[in-house]
From TrEMBL:
Designated name of the protein: Oxysterol-binding protein
InterPro entries in the cross-refs: OSBP_sf, Oxysterol-bd, Oxysterol-bd_CS
Biological process annotations from GO: lipid transport
GO CC annotations, alphabetized: cytosol; perinuclear endoplasmic reticulum; plasma membrane
Protein's organism: Sinocyclocheilus grahami (Dianchi golden-line fish)
Amino acid sequence: MVTLLINYNNRSPKTESALPAAMFSRSNVSMWSVLKKCIGMELSKITMPVIFNEPLSFLQRLTEYMEHTYLIHKAMIVGGIPLLGFRWVSEQVSHHPPVSAFHAEGIKSDFRFHGSIYPKLKFWGKSVEAEPRGIITLELPLHNEAYTWTNPTCCVHNIIMGQLWIEQYGNVEIINHKTGERCCLTFKPCGIFGKELHKVEGYILDKSKRKICALYGKWTECLYAVDPAIFDAHRKSDTKRSEKDRKGSTQSNNADEMPPPEAETVQVIPGSELIWRISPRPDNSGKVCGIFQHLSSHTLMPSMPSSSQVCGSDCSDR
């Protein structure tokens, strides 16, 4: 169990800013020396080196959902004063199958965010695919609105050897149950040439399914909004250009071996408005399991209430 109380206006000086130990290099372990001993064994009997673990529980990792809570606070400003901070509780409610549940709310009850995660895992040799199951809900009581959605499929590549990288793909539909409006997004798979890697695009539709706004960008970088007519025209011309490039190219890459791009690669359409940009990682991110700034400054080793106020199973108190 993980319990958090985070108030951005009153940060505790006792909150630690780093993991108690740095991450080990996986290059120090020969994966083949481990696997060759496991040929013919049941998956449940295979013991992996402890170096492949990280000093964070999955429940603590779930707090990454709150990385961009400031966007909710920005939308919920009351009387010119932003309502900053939230409470969080998460629990492993089932182990077979594994199901994790969480609930968060603003410290002024300006929002409620809750859901459950029970992914279906598929092993493809060099990669692991996690098919999401479970509905995520965001409630805004001041507007009497509730939004629901499910996460896209996530695939982790090069789990045995090579550079680890992640892609997400599939369709996500975010529904406003008060107005009937919905946002239909497509997370694009990497593809053979890698041009679609991390790309996201879609539309906001009213209850009559009329396009109100178009959204595009990359979930690893930024997201833009633009008029749907302008977006459709740009996408049509971009499709023709991509077909010409595909015919003139003989490149063939293995998707698992394709490293993620480092530079920003989103082509901005004229007339677009930037609505979100990812927060930079901490300087020591590579040494502490690739955590985000939000986790590093608040939720790794949070300042907790006294032991009498916290459930004995809370893993952050271990």
